[in-house]
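Morning run. Coffee first, then this:
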Amino acid sequence: QVQLVESGGGLVQAGGSLRLSCTASGGTFSLNAMGWYRQPPGKQRELVATITSGGSTNVVDSVKGRFSISRDNAKNTVFLQMDSLKPEDTAVYYCATGPLCLLYRGPQGGYGQWGQGTQVTVSP
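And here it is:
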């Protein structure tokens, strides 16, 4: 059983940057893929970025060139660096851990391990 704790969110002006962190405990962090989801107000939770146990990364088209994902296995931590933020990036951000295929399937595919999330608000 894994516990996930997200942090680093806040209020930022459009064009600004934030760095989100997620620390995992109670599992074998280095063997799992990691990812970030976000849930904008009134919308469904959506996958934003993934990183495999070997360090291969992918981000969705809507944030490509602005967001990047990384991990520090020694600290059981995954990061999401967010630059050039836009108001449409406003959402609660959640991290996820598990097999890469399960992360891509998401909640509809059975993924259900969440922390509290961290709120990101981007003002115009």
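The two ends are 40 Å apart (CA to CA). Good start to the day.
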